[in-house]
Amino acid sequence: MNTPLRRVGLVMLAMVVLLLGNTTYIQLVDADDYRSDARNQRVLYEEYARQRGRIITADEQIIANVKATDDRLRFQRTYANGPMYAPVTGFYSVRYGATGLERAEDEILNGSDDRLFVRRLSDLVTGRDPRGGNIVLTVDSRVQKAAYDAMTRNQFKGAVVAIKPDDGQILAMVSTPSFDPTGLADHDPDVQEKTYNQYRDENNPNKPMLNRAISDNYTPGSTFKLVTAAAALEDGRDKDTQLMASPGIDVLTGDPCDPSDGSTRCMSNYNDNPCGSGQTASLATAIELSCNTAFAQLAGELGVDKLRDQAVRFGIGQTDLTIPLSVVPSCIGPLSDGNCLNIPDRPSLFQSGIGQKDVRVTALENAVVAGTIANDGIRMRPQLVQKILAPDLELISDYHAEEVGDAMSPSSAEALRDMMILSEDHTGGDGKRDDIQVASKTGTAETGADPKNTPPFAWYVAFAPAEDPQVAVAVVVESRDVAATGGKVSAAIGRATMDAALARGN
Amino acid sequence: MSQPGPAGSLAAQGSDTPGSSTPTRRGTELAMLAFAAGLVTGALMLVEANQEQQLTMRLVYYGLAYLVLFAVAHGAVRRWAPYADPLILPCVALLNGIGLVMIYRIDLALTERYGDNWSEAAPKQVLWTAIALVMFIAVLKFLPDHRTLSRYAYMFGLAGLVLLALPGMLPSSLSEVNGAKIWLRLGIFSIQPGEFAKILLMVFFAAFLVSKRDLFTVAGRRILGVDLPRARDMGPILFAWGICVAIMVFEKDLGTALLFFGVVLALLYVATERFIWVGVGLVLFVGGCLLAYQLFGHVQGRVESWLDPFGNYEGGGYQLAQALFGFGTGGMFGTGLGSGRPEMLLLQANSDFITAAIGEELGFIGLAALLLVYMLLAMRGMRSAVAVRDSFGKLLGGGLSFTLVMQIFLVVGGVTTLIPLTGITAPFLSAGGSSLLANYVLIALLLRISDAARRPQTGAKPKPVQQAPIAEAHTVMVERPS
User: Fold this and answer.
1) A280 SS3 class
2) 8 Å CB contact of A40 and B273
3) How far apart are CA B455 and CA A482, in angstroms?
4) Count: domains in chain A
């Protein structure tokens, strides 16, 4: 009987070898597929259990930290001034994933970035738990707070962006109403769900999780006249170029018309006023008084190509901008074939020249326009992250200012700045200071199907001090009042933000 | 250990080695047991470190308690089976110990997931281990010679059948858990009589085949160069096949049916040395599979989940998919004991899927090592079967060893999607008292057989064979002179 016993022994051997072979295949060959399967929550849990890095403002305020917990996830994300910084930090939730910088810089924050590899190895050897790296923002808490407080004091819905014109660092990025990411980081799934349901767009008409500074774009209204004016200056015109002063312009022919006729083809100035007191108006006067007719005419004269070219040089139409949060593109025309830089017909061109029709701009983009004018026409890439630090606070990567092109010549920029100073002097609103000269442009963008009876978007874009710009700002408010204007509503917020930026010193 | 001396020297000194130069190798066994205890304590330490972030003196007590438990078992072997193979008990101790650590570790995970709805399995398993060791010692003490078993073969066979059939006959309220009717629920605790029936029936088959083996070696008709067995000799194999089909139909227990049939085939082959029985068995097996697939929804579900666990992710494939995720995440070295996510395997994490949890936390290396321990264990058993002198011992030893490998093949093959999941427990690892008891009895029998195999043949028994008186002499066939 020994021969068959030995053969059965061989069969047993073969069975175990078969198991070993199959296990090899699963655990070594196919392992990566299983490990990275979206339904495999193990990797996710492991990541959540790591001590996540901090997010710190430029003036060293810790706005996102961790606290140790006694459950399996071990560390819970905490946020200081959650709603104020939520548009920057985003949230970090076991159940709902991550947004904002928590998502864009996730690899640094969770420690899996290649630049942290050597430290991970040493952690492995020394037996210390791996930790994530830290992010230092360009955002300054004083500027952010000034902007946030100014918006929330009036319960405004909108966004404020402040940047440094000479290097593109974002000093403040505010979106209101905001949300508190703290509840989403809670380890209790029920708390997460409750918080999420409270904030999600479907349940909350205020859309607190929408980042109005970069994830939504608004009709810019008259603030877009800066782009049109820049195109005109680059095309050889100057501040004395004479433009028509009639109170209305026919959007089909470009001829003067009388808005009191009630013709829908007649596009008028604010309050149906003529542009100044003369037969014609200079470009400077048209900016100062924000004349729609003059800029519609100007757009018509420049044509689609020149207007588009100037818009693109300011960064409009860029679809892949990341700061490192991704920014939705700003547009001058309807979206088609993945771009929105086509103005289809002449009536649209007239309206686009004054920032209406299909022109849509993010608050960040408008801050970049102001910053570019302030920076002698050189456009800087806007950025939110100043430094990346290792868990032990050693510097891993530092800020590099990045030039992304000349939007206009320095002389054109200077001319435009002078016109913006006139505009600021003509603009009302609170917060004006005698000691600092501001250059600005307001905008009151018509919205909706019945613009005369719909509250407009109130804009204010500016930089200061005009002769040596340290900060550029863009404010947009989705106003609640039909009579609201950029000057009445937004200017004070922009000035308060700039004051904070100038007061912080450098 | 024994004094080295010339072969056949009389009156050796040690009490361990009465009258022989054959070493008992009990010292080796003790050393290996201590090694296993060290490994198990280390494993427990890792779990504590990873889960609780601290180490306490409790660890030392647990380690000592474990060592004491198996030292008692070792003492019993020393006393009643001194020549038994020295590796079998340490292998079992290691598997059982790793199983306990894993069950404790999974308790922590499942308590976190289910809260108070999860009742801890580790304390029960420790209790069952103690009971199983008592049974183990009882078998060694009260069964000095395994051949005694063959005398009661038919009684065992009948008892085995009754135990096997009992849950199927009883109302579901007394016998059904999670869809399988294989339980006897006796108030506070439940047992699976099938686990014991397995051994009883194996004893019966081994004894039956030894006594009737000549019948099965008679060839029937020869067709296409193959000697077919006679139709009337097909009885036993058809009988076994019928039992298996009945288990599937009435108890919905694929695993036991497969295991039982596989072991009967192996026994039949060893007893008759004729491969044709395996052929016949495989034909019956394939037929049974096709029939089961056609008739039973639960079999179809298992096959579908096996072919595409991710396609049935929301349904029957969920646990398998999680097992695969765990294996993948564990990779080569594993996540480390206590750092995996066995709670993803749901309530079966510590029974049917315990090897998946081990594969995740100890990685391919850990799982491979575990499989090799099983193989070592079974191969030592097989070696004893080859070495033992009586046919019944050979057959029983071979069958018991094969059972061990067959079980682990069904378990690990199931969770690694080599074969459809059959819902069987890993011997000594999985939580479950019946399986533990039955497998300890199995090991006691193997030790008994290996003791018989290595026991030196001295003393009175094998006296030189005297010429039997003519009246008692065997009948001798003589060829008729032509």
Assistant:
1) strand
2) no
3) 106
4) 1
Residue A416: CA atoms inside 13 Å, Cβ hemisphere, count? 33
Cis peptide leading into residue A465 (ω within 30°): yes
pLDDT band at B219; cut points 50, 70, 90:
low
The reply to whether A506 falls in a domain is no
Asked whether residue A200 is assigned to any structural domain, the reply reads no
Inter-residue contact A80 to A173 (CB < 8 Å): no
User: For A267-317, how does the pLDDT look when each residue is reduced to its tens digit (9 = 90+)?
Assistant: 888 888 888 888 889 999 999 998 999 999 999 999 999 999 999 999 999
CA distance B213 to chain A (A): 11
Per residue in A363-381, pLDDT (tens digit) is 999 999 999 999 999 999 9
CA–CA distance, B437 with B135 (Å, rounded to integer) = 7
Which entry of A93, A175, A215, A222 is annotated as an active-site residue? A222
Structural contact between residues A491 and A460, judged by C-beta atoms closer than 8 angstroms = yes
Q: Is residue A479 part of a domain?
A: no
The whole-angstrom separation of Cα B138 and Cα A345 is 99
Q: Is there a contact between B273 and A26 if contact means CB atoms under 8 Å apart?
A: no
pLDDT for B3: 43
The amino acid at A216? D
Tokens of B116: 């108070």
Hey, of B202, B377, B405, B408, which one would you mutate to test binding to chain A, going by the most A CBs within 10 A of its CB?
B405
The one-letter amino acid at A344: P
In a domain, A334, yes or no: yes
Look up the CATH number of the domain holding residue A335.
3.40.710.10
Domain residue spans of chain B? 26-455
| ipTM entry | 0.87
- Whether cis (ω within 30° of 0) applies to the bond prior to A324 is yes
Q: Nearest CA to CA, how far is A22 from chain B (Å)?
A: 7
User: Which of B264, B339, B341 to mutate to probe the A interface, most A CBs <10 Å?
Assistant: B341
Q: Which domain holds residue A296?
A: 220-360
pLDDT value of position B432: 87
Active site residue A222: yes
Q: How close is the nearest chain B Cα to the Cα of A135, in Å?
A: 28
